[in-house]
């Protein structure tokens, strides 16, 4: 028994949270309005409204949608609002900006709704390596949620963590 290998991490009270586990599988769509601009640079209200009215919005059912314009054009705020009003019955979430901003907003919502009670007074490791596009801000959102309740916060893997926070006694 003297040579028995004991997994001290598995036997400890350390809890690991992996933001990749929260990653929603629904598709992300970048909706670029540049094709609805006159000569690619001017928004003509009548033509724009016609494009919005005739577009099949049901294609965005349960998708996360980022609204953008990749052309150097001045787009009035109401244009994004008009599109949002058509997307709202179908899309899970709509953001005006790029896909990274959309992902950040998705994670902010997920983390705000996260049941954090199981992390109360425990040492917590926030897993760092992921294969999915976790926005850097998601880790900050998570720290804000966990720090008031966790005993300690660490980042990385159980074998090599970086200490982030320790509750004072």
Could you please describe the fold and organization of this structure?
It is built from four helices and seven strands; from the N terminus they run E-E-H-E-H-E-H-E-H-E-E. It has 169 residues and is α/β, with parallel strands linked by helices. It folds into two domains: 15-24 and 110-166; 28-91, no CATH class. It has a four-stranded mixed sheet, covered by helices on one side. A three-stranded parallel sheet has the order 2-3-4, with helices on both faces. Strand 6 (152-157) and strand 7 form a beta hairpin. The protein is elongated, with a radius of gyration of 22 Å. 19% of the residues are buried.
The termini sit apart by 37 Å
| Domain module count | 2
Counting DSSP E segments of at least 2 residues, the number of strands comes to 7
Backbone shape: elongated
List the helices and strands and how they pair.
Layout: E1 15-17, E2 28-32, H1 45-54, E3 64-68, H2 77-87, E4 93-96, H3 99-112, E5 123-127, H4 136-146, E6 152-157, E7 160-166
Parallel strand pairs: 1-5, 2-3, 3-4, 5-6
Antiparallel strand pairs: 6-7
Question: What can be said about this structure in brief?
Answer:
The chain is 27% helix and 21% strand. It has four helices and seven strands; from the N terminus they run ββαβαβαβαββ. It has helices at 45-54, 77-87, 99-112, 136-146; strands spanning 15-17, 28-32, 64-68, 93-96, 123-127, 152-157, 160-166.
């Amino acid at each position: 028994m003297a040579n028995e290998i004991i997994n001290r991490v598995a036997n400890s009270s350390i809890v690991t949270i992996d933001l990749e586990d929260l990653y929603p599988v629904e598709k992300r769509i970048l909706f670029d309005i540049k094709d609805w601009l006159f000569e690619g640079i001017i928004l003509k209200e009548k033509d724009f409204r016609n494009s919005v009215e005739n577009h099949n919005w049901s294609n965005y059912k349960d998708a996360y949608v980022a609204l953008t314009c990749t052309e150097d054009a001045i787009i009035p705020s109401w244009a994004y609002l008009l599109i949002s009003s058509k997307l709202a019955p179908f899309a899970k979430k709509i953001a005006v900006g790029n896909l990274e901003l959309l992902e950040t907003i998705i994670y902010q919502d997920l983390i705000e709704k996260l049941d954090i009670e199981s992390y109360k007074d425990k040492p917590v490791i926030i897993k760092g390596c992921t294969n999915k596009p976790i926005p850097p801000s998601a880790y900050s959102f998570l720290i804000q949620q966990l720090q008031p309740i966790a005993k300690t916060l660490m980042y990385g893997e159980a074998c090599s963590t970086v200490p982030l926070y320790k509750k004072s006694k």
